[in-house]
């Protein structure tokens, strides 16, 4: 073995130490030399991991002083403005953390900011995975785990936001109870069980507390470990480039390069989180006061990741509410409160399998797609972003109405129309942009790039010289995978197909086969094919001019 292929001396020493005791040196050394691709977007998942670690550490600190009790007491503490006010022990203990524990307010701010960053990084990370097709075979299971982590993170954030029992969090719990009550037949039973009686009951804080600090974090931790174990086994996806294939990864070894980079990045994430917590105040519960069922508030918004549910509840009409045998079915709460969330998360979970069924692509993919090369998928992703963003804005329709002096009814009507029309427009625009970029890529691959040099031919014609693209660019452009296109004629042949005995073929006989053919046609019909295109080599004249002709004049 050559010297260059050996592991670093420090790594060999660790391996020998382990091997002397557990005979695992070879396995450990091999895993520590695992290669990770280099790209900034791959660090988004690490931000989520580091934020989760910060959440665990700060959460343990906060549990030392927080009292998850709804027993009412008269406050007599360091925050004098609320002295003599009747409040729950949960709210009083949170005030004690803020004003009576050294560094307590900063730690609570770090905990809250880390939660927001955790969910935000999950969202952006999942968008990166979706748009690049990194969820495809063999990573469908890891995608499902990621969807589960995302959904649990939102629920965990909602429960944590509700624990201080201040006025905004109490209003959030009230909305949660309203969504529970919208469930036909069982809604009232679930509400009475969770709250320990009529709202607000006496048990909701203590029960949310156990879910927040024990059950959901335990599940999240298990899912994150499973996520990284599968990632470690299957290797990371990588973007197309020179030397990168489905069987070869180009990047930095785990030890020492990637480990040093990851360690430094953790402290960077921690520093940003602490900086935000120190200089940007969030959720100042001491200004809101304790929650009471008779108090109301306006102008306050939930944490950003729950804004879409707030917006859906605000703009969804109640025209469709009905009763079954005397039992009310409040569609105006049930659909926006649970239906839309089920649509979002259910759609994310099903999409890898649906796309594979539509395209018939059973190949393993370790090289990520460029979003432009999957225009329908990219268009659907943009449509989802537009849908979410409009619902998020609708959650502040009262603030928008007040700020811009617009009727609240008109803002509501606008968002009711926009959440239907907006995603359609987003899909069309994104798809057309992707197709335009595909055509430009084909032009670049076939003719090279514009050099800016204008030449005049002996005939007097002026043309621009195109030069050869770099090897890296050519490799990226050639990485576009050809998708089997199903045109209208193919669909007609499927529907009209019969076997040797004149019996209609199963594909034509079944609704499933016909549906798949039409979806595949829709998915692939506009895709720009690169088949037969050869990379431009050498300096030549564009527009079919002969290379051997000498230019009469150069400008």
Automatic annotation (TrEMBL):
Protein name as it appears in the record: Cytochrome bc1 complex cytochrome b subunit
Signal peptide (UniProt feature, chain positions): none
Segments crossing the lipid bilayer: 47-66, 110-131, 143-163, 175-196, 208-232, 258-280, 287-304, 324-354, 374-393, 413-430
GO MF, any single term: oxidoreductase activity
Localization per Swiss-Prot or TrEMBL: Cell membrane
Organism: Nocardiopsis composta
UniProt-annotated stretches for the region Disordered: 535-555
Keywords: Cell membrane, Electron transport, Heme, Iron, Membrane, Metal-binding, Respiratory chain, Translocase, Transmembrane, Transmembrane helix, Transport
InterPro entries with a match to the protein in the record: Cyt_b/b6_C, Cyt_b/b6_N, Cytb/b6-like_sf, Di-haem_cyt_TM
Biased composition (Basic and acidic residues): 544-555
EC numbers, comma separated: 7.1.1.8
Catalytic activity as recorded in UniProt: a quinol + 2 Fe(III)-[cytochrome c](out) = a quinone + 2 Fe(II)-[cytochrome c](out) + 2 H(+)(out)
Membrane topology: Multi-pass membrane protein
